[in-house]
Design brief:
By secondary structure, the chain is of the alpha/beta class. It folds into 2 domains: 192 residues, Rossmann fold (3-Layer(aba) Sandwich), CATH 3.40.50; 90 residues, SIR2/SIRT2 'Small Domain' (2-Layer Sandwich), CATH 3.30.1600.10. 29% of the residues lie in helices and 15% in strands. The strands form 3 sheets. A 6-stranded parallel β-sheet has the order 4-3-2-7-9-10, covered by helices on one side. Helix 1 crosses helix 8 and helix 4 crosses helix 9. The longest helix is centred in the C-terminal third of the chain and has 12 residues. It is globular, with a radius of gyration of 20 Å. The N terminus is likely disordered. The structure holds 2'-O-acetyl adenosine-5-diphosphoribose. The site of 2'-O-acetyl adenosine-5-diphosphoribose has 26 residues, from loops. It holds the Pfam family SIR2. Its EC number is 2.3.1.286. Its cofactor is Zn(2+).
Length: 297
């Protein structure tokens, strides 16, 4: 996994597939039955409303707020070579980010609703918070491109480490060591660090974006490769919708790109309204997170 900064090109060109470059036109395209194989691609921005910071937002992003960990540079907390030398900073963060402490956003619920209506072909996520599963997206159509906290193993002999013991170590901020006799390797959640290969499920499914009839990109700066390449794999003429606070990657440069530059939650609510699904969506979300959490978010 490596860093990348794609440039933005500004082209205001008329659409070829959609009737208009608007969410209303995207909703019509879906309602006309033209989107049966939707591929969604998500990043940390879809979870910020749940209370999990993203990485790169100025001021609030995780990488801006790691001074307390005394790192040589912020990304070091997710670098495998640094982890080998000093796993403690990662375990400070792990305690804060560990799944179970957060609830899905309505944007997660929208993706689950697409799955429920058999319209979601696949979800590619960079997130390690497991909130897509918590919202009800079936695990077999989720590609966790940067891994997740759902399992863990020794970084040397690769022996899996038990979940319950891991939870205890994370709660104490205490990096566990491998339990295999003769191996004293460090244990790390199966999160992809800089310097590590992405999971095989990512490469096994890299052909899927080219088979999509609609691509939704939500809450990502598209600044980390190879994930950042995925939206570009959509065929020409396939509508791509960006739900993000600002433009990223080359989204907006194709004739059927639609930009919704707002919070993911506001954007999916607007699309759901155009689809006539808003009541279903709100009900489904409240059923997942409860009324108190829904009111808090
Ligand atoms: P970033 O922090 O790089 O980007 C998050 C994007 O979401 C930014 O463009 C924000 O403006 C936007 N955003 C934030 N809150 C939003 C909201 N409520 N609604 C809409 N947009 C919002 O996060 P990622 O792109 O996910 O890797 O970062 C990619 C990878 O870099 C991560 O998976 C992580 C990191 O290094 C690992 O840790 C393994």
């Amino acid at each position: 996994m490596g860093q990348d900064n794609s440039s933005l090109v500004d082209d205001d060109i008329p659409p070829e597939t959609l009737s208009d470059r608007t969410l209303a036109a995207v909703a019509k395209y879906i309602k006309d039955g033209k989107a049966q194989n939707i591929v969604a691609m998500t990043g940390a921005g879809i979870s910020t409303a749940a209370g999990i910071p993203d990485f790169r937002s100025p001021g609030t992003g995780l990488y801006n707020n790691l001074a307390r960990l005394n790192l040589p540079h912020p990304e070091a907390v997710f670098e495998i070579d640094f982890f080998r030398e000093n796993p403690a900073p990662f375990y400070v963060l792990a305690r804060e980010l560990y799944p179970g402490n957060f609830s899905p956003t309505i944007a997660h619920a929208f993706i689950a609703l697409l799955a429920k209506r058999n319209l979601l072909r696949m979800l590619f996520t960079q997130n390690i918070d497991c909130l897509e599963r918590a919202a009800g997206v079936p695990g077999d159509i989720i590609v966790e491109a940067h891994g997740s906290f759902a399992s863990q193993r020794c970084i040397d002999c690769k022996t899996p480490f038990p979940d319950r013991e891991m939870r205890e170590h994370v709660e104490l901020g205490d990096p566990p060591s491998c339990a295999q006799p003769g191996c004293e390797g460090l244990v790390k959640p199966d999160i992809v660090f800089f310097g590590e290969q992405l999971p095989s499920t990512f490469f096994d499914n890299r052909h899927v974006p080219a088979e999509a009839d609609l691509v939704l990109v939500l809450g990502t700066s598209l600044s980390v490769q190879p994930f950042a390449l995925l939206p570009g794999l959509a065929r020409e003429g396939v509508p791509r919708v960006l739900f993000n606070l600002q433009r990223v990657g080359d989204l907006g440069t194709r004739p059927d790109d639609v930009l919704c530059l707002d919070s993911c939650d506001a954007g999916v609510r607007r699309l759901a309204e155009h689809l006539g699904w808003i009541d279903d969506l709100e009900d489904m979300w409240v059923a997942i997170v409860g009324e108190e959490e829904a009111a808090r978010q």
